[in-house]
Specification:
This protein is an alpha+beta fold and 107 residues long. Helices cover 32% and strands 35% of the residues. It is globular and about 35 Å long. The chain starts with a helix and ends with a strand.
Amino acid sequence: ENFAVNHIPKSAYDAYTGSITDDKALFDTISRKKYGLLCANIVADVLMSMADSFRILLDDDGYGVLSGILQTRAQEVASHFEKHGFSVVERTDDGDWTALLIAHAGK
């Protein structure tokens, strides 16, 4: 709905819902190409379980937006993604919540 309101054609984006950690068919479909932007707004444990998937799916020059992270767990999530080959480009805190902008390390 937001894409239509902002006059963004369907050919300009791919949107999927589901669990790429539990649904192999969904992951196989999504992993047919690399993405310049990946977004996930979900709790810390699930985000961390997706680190290897993000590494596979994110284009070498792409960014990932991780949100829905309780501020008390933000450093844990950041460290986890760093151990999986990412760097944290930016951190934004808003009340009890944190969002992280990540990229492949060395970018």
